Task: inverse folding
């Protein structure tokens, strides 16, 4: 069945460091891929998405490219800020209305 | 739009009591989802509705849990009787399902503590 695998956290970085959070997926065909972010005490919010192979989603300095050949959708940011500290969820949807989430990766950014 | 509205934001109750969580989805959205989030189990989909009809309730833990969507603007998740292991944050989310859509908007969550 469809599934999403994320790197385990926490990821701990200093401000202005480069961020990568790995995400790979298992699905037949071409799912749509998403990154959601959850700030402390809040619900999840859509960060970015990509709906077909080689698409790049971007928002707030974050980017992720839909790589069909490696079934990956890694999240990157060139320079993180303390305010980026949150839990990041990779997700996919394919052939159903049901969004399948990864387990989440906690990012902690220190000044 | 005010977004997805959940109530209560916090609920503390004693074991055995009935708990009802409420959700108002975004107007025009035709799918509604209930999720549960705990440290141990992460984010779990409990049930989802499309056009007010339950489509997949395979994530509902047991018969103590029930969910209803009497109309397009309101849904409830009920736990009766509640148990301490039900303590979690319960999220409601809605979306408009269709080509190019399927982006979920989440509510702020209802934090349930069962003593």
Result:
């Amino acid at each position: 069945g469809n599934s999403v695998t994320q790197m385990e956290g926490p990821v701990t970085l200093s401000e202005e460091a480069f961020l990568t959070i790995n995400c790979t997926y298992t699905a037949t065909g071409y799912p749509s891929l998403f990154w959601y972010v959850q700030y402390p005490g809040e619900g999840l919010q859509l960060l970015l998405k990509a709906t077909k192979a080689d698409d790049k989603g971007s928002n707030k300095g974050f980017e992720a490219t839909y790589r069909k050949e490696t079934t990956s959708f890694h999240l990157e940011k060139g320079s993180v800020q303390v305010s980026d500290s949150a839990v990041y969820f990779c997700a996919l949807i394919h052939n159903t209305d049901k969004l399948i989430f990864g387990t989440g990766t906690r990012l902690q950014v220190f000044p | 739009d005010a977004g997805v509205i959940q109530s209560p934001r916090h609920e503390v109750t004693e074991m055995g009591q009935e708990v009802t969580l409420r959700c108002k989805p975004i107007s025009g959205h035709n799918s509604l989802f209930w999720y549960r989030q705990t440290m141990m189990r992460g984010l779990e989909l409990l049930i989802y509705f499309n056009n007010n009809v339950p489509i997949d309730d395979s994530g509902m833990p047991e018969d103590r849990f029930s969910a209803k969507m009497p109309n397009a603007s309101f849904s409830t998740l009920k736990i009766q009787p509640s148990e301490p292991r039900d303590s979690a944050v319960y999220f409601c989310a809605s979306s408009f399902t269709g080509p190019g859509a399927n982006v979920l908007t989440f509510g702020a969550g209802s934090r349930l503590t069962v003593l």
Summary: Residues 7 and 22 of chain B are 5 Å apart (CA to CA). The mean pLDDT of chain B is 92.
